[in-house]
Amino acid sequence: MTPQSDLSGLVEEVRTRLTRTPGELSPHRVADALRAAGRPVGDATVLAVYEALRRDVIGAGPLEPLLALPGVTDVLVNGPGPVRIDRGAGVEETDVVLSSEEACRRLAQRLVASGGRRLDDAAPWADVRLPDGTRCHALLAPLAQPGTAISLRVPRRGGLDLTALHAAGTLSDAGLELVRRLVEARLAFLVTGGTGGGKTTLLSALLGAVDPRERIVVVEDAAELRPAHPQVVGLEARPANLEGAGAVVLRDLVRQALRMRPDRLVVGEVRDAAVVDLLAAMNTGHEGGCGTLHANSAGDVPARVEALALGAGLGREAAHSQLAAGLDAVLHVRRDRTTGRRRLGEIAVLARGADGLARTELAVAFDASGTATRGPGAQRLLQLLDGGGA
Hints:
390 residues, alpha/beta, Beta-Lactamase, Rossmann fold, nine-stranded mixed sheet, six-stranded antiparallel sheet, 13 helices, 15 strands, 35% helix, elongated
């Protein structure tokens, strides 16, 4: 067996020779390149070099085995060195190693190219969806230190339903009952939390619990939601091409979705001016609208929505008025620092303060053990669930 260091040297030498002449990658061409370099041409060596090169030009290259591991949600490259993964219990190192900055840069450029974008010194970052649905973000060095950074968000195969989230500890007994009733009551809600907190997973499971006779239209920047539901139409934004034309933004797609007879309008991640159209939809008879939003707590939602709406030209008073009138509940997810477990932390309801501004009231909080504690908004939540919130 060729030592790993010797194999890396052979791979780079063969790669250099193969790039000088066009042709498909094959064991025969690899053997010819090894002979030309005066290297050993045994079957084991040829196949080892060929497989290393093949992995480097197909799929996610050396990251492919990591993407296939059960439970992996993220694969992370922080420049040369060990590649890291997240399987739900925090970031951990793997045995996969990228040997140089050149290897990191080459891998990042190939991944981004497979998603239809370019990555070079003139365009040093990109966010694309790969053909298998994996979301890829890449940022070249020297903007990223200690080297080119690649972040892969792995789509969950098959998704999880509410029962599975309950079994995994994301939802307690009381939490499972409340979110099921929330979906059945067609309340408008947002799922909030931090990056990697499980917002998309919970929202996808909630959509899977929607009545199969209802039509769900999902609008996303990058397709991540995969609810187990028979009537889902997905709309995905599109970046500009190399000439800077052809971009389709989230806000345009929200407007199109409103013309597609949605029973449920879903914005996968509310993070720009699309919030204005989502609020408008929630206030014009489109019940059960929902989405996800980055926020540190349910109490921060009004301020986050206000900031996004102001950026779209909607005044403060109008933004709060539409938020209070259109949004019913906020489901906030947390990720435990010690165990890495994602769980529903609190459910809040919207209320209007004496100043006319929207605010959230805690309805129920769940601790790490799943124990539920009622808050001042509990009665309001029960009224909404019973259909008396109008």
